Amino acid sequence: MSDDQGAALAKPRVYLETTVVSYLTAESSRDLIQAAHQHITREWWAKRRSDLDLFISQVVINEVSEGDPGAAQRRLETIRGLPILDLTEGISELAQALVAKGPLPEKAADDAFHLAFATVHDMDYLVTWNCKHLANAEMLRQVERLLDEKGYGIPRVCTPEELMGE
What are the pLDDT digits (tens) for 11-65? Predict the structure, then answer.
């Protein structure tokens, strides 16, 4: 098999950010937008999960472990068995730069780590419902410039709806 054929068979590598897990496992919301996001997330999980190589980080595990114990247990159960990306010095440095020099505020330090994990581990996609700090076109332009300065390409940051396929 040639390298081109192997690449064609490889599944896209996707970093699964915490908000997706939360929407997937949460009780149905009365808020129409949140309810729609939950429905889309559940549909995406059912239809697309097997087409993708999903990855998480310890940051995701830490975040899904917080809050209501029953909800935390459902979230942890959902991500059980997913590969956990290694934390490297490069990831820590990049996350710090995204806050210190980039567009992310200090309160979004975990979001900077999500971006850094997906970037350094060369993910094809970072899938999220966090449209304030991650799936934000204006912010991503600034992130892309910073990553380019540091010699990195940026993964495609998108919502489950944008990664629904055909």
Answer: 999 999 999 999 999 999 999 999 999 999 999 999 999 999 999 999 999 999 9
Determine the Cα–Cα distance for residues 72 and 111; give it in Å rounded to an integer: 19
Name the β-bridge partners of 153: none
In degrees, rounded to 5, the angle at the alpha carbon of residue 88 between the alpha carbons of residues 60 and 98 is 70
What is residue 133's DSSP assignment?
T
pTM equals 0.92
With a CB cutoff of 8 Å and minimum separation 6, the contacts of 94 are 112, 115, 116, 119, 120, 147, 150, 152
- Write down the residue that tokens 């915490």 correspond to: 18
Question: Mapping DSSP to helix (H, G, I), strand (E, B) and coil, where does residue 16 land?
Answer: strand
Q: How far apart are CA 124 and CA 140, in angstroms?
A: 15
Taken in order of first residue, the domains within the chain and their CATH numbers are 3-163 (3.40.50.1010)
